[in-house]
Amino acid sequence: MTSLEQELKGNAYPGRGIVIGESPSGKKAVTAYFIMGRSQNSRNRIFVPDGEGIRTQAFDPSKLEDPSLIIYAPVRVLGNKTIVTNGDQTDTIYEGMDGQLTFEQSLRCREFEPDAPNYTPRISGILHVEGGRFSYAMSILKSNHGDPASCLRFTYAYKSPLMGEGHFIHTYMHDGNPLPSFEGEPKPVAVDEDIEEFTKKIWSSLNEENKVSLFVRYIDIATGRYESRIVNKNQ
Question: Any residues with CB less than 8 A from the CB of 86 and at least 6 apart, and which?
């Protein structure tokens, strides 16, 4: 497994990232989602609770420029499923699965973000906790080496997660102009037992200048009850 701490400390701009996995005891389903920003518009955000999930919100509404790709619900809950994404495809997945489509089928109508020349990948994850069992899946929709005429679609399913292991997927390989899309499979990373420790570890490892907000949730696999943490750079 890769050290999530080292992965983050070694990359000044992974962009937005999703971690999903299982605690070392096997009792908790774990997910984390963070956002970063280089522009004033991207940095002018906070996470706020929204029902059982969260949404992004402008910290200073007077400085909000283009809300189209930065204001969305990153986390929504549909029954025993928790959806985590880096864009408004959260709603696409929610509506698709509510209409009996699979996670993968729900995303077939979506592509990478229309933010040329970066064409930011859409990354998504879903946690399924039911009857004392936990499974999850992750997806990335990205341009073919920066060519907007071709969309590459990858879905990774983890039916029997290993205790203490999670997977980490993010939007960019590193900082750059244009920003290079994530490559390869989601990275196996260690997950902590304690939500406070895991939250602190991720937040302190993110680049101080570029980090914006972090959300972490631990779901009890036996009961479905959960606890969450939100950390915002803008207070």
Answer: 16, 18, 33, 35, 74, 120, 122, 123, 124, 171
Written as six digits, the tokens of 142 are: 């990205």
| Boundaries of every domain in the chain | 4-232
**Rg (Cα) of the chain, in Å, rounded?**
16
Residue type, position 200, single letter = K
The one-letter amino acid code at 19 reads: V
Per-residue CA distances from 132 to 87, 137, 208, 209, 219 (Å)? 30, 17, 38, 41, 11
pLDDT tens, 154-164? Answer: 999 999 999 99
**Three-state SS string across 149-205, please?**
EEEEEEEEEECCCCCCEEEEEECECCCCCCCCECCCCCEEEECCCCHHHHHHHHHHH
| Amino acid at residue number 69 | L
Could you read off the pLDDT of 84-124 as tens digits, one per residue? 999 999 999 999 999 999 999 999 999 999 999 999 999 99
Residue of 219, 196, 207 whose CA lies nearest to 5: 207
* Peptide linkage before 186 cis (omega within 30 of 0): no
Beta bridge partners of 84: 75, 125
Q: How far apart are the first and last CA of the chain?
A: 34
Overall fold of domain 4-232: Glutamine Phosphoribosylpyrophosphate, subunit 1, domain 1 (3.60.20)
Question: Residue 4 and residue 189: Cα distance in Å, rounded?
Answer: 6
Rounded CA separation 145/229 (Å)? 35
Pairing of strands 147-158, 133-144: antiparallel
Integer Cα distance of 198 and 30 in angstroms = 10
Structure token pair of residue 203: 């937040």
